[in-house]
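Task card 7
Instruction: Convert sequence to structure tokens.
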Amino acid sequence: MSIYFYGCVTMDGYLADKNHNMDWLYQTGTTEETDYEAFYKKMTITIMGKKTFDEIKHLENIESFYPTTQNYVFTHDERLPVEGFIPVSGDIIDFIKELDTNQNVWIIGGNTVLAPLLDNDMVDNITIQIAPVLLGNGVPLFSQKETLKRFNLEEVKKYGQFAELIYSKI
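Output:
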């Protein structure tokens, strides 16, 4: 099993503004300007938190965003209003340990899901796209425990206004 984080942040490291809004991202560019399609084709499972799901659920054609993956949302809700998204609850570490080991898991969105995985050295690859935006405040990408974590820089790419950094676990 390989666990990936793939996402975009502002230059000052925020996933969303203080109101969990991501308009800054949508106004900066699109996934067509990146290697998103190639990345997604390698994934078999997506996992996101409820706040991330709430941000994307209103997008047009959301049912078609992740058509070839099993899509899990960590939430206390028993049902979700969008077809193709499976609500789960409990501990993310235990949940991932129960998955088939022949999976590529994409962690979408926030620090609530990502931090415990980083704390347990379970993230194998991190791809961060950086948008030329400063928010000054908001939802940070990283909020794991204060422990040194090292990754190896594999590649740097430029897509339109985005810089992309690709890291692997050492």
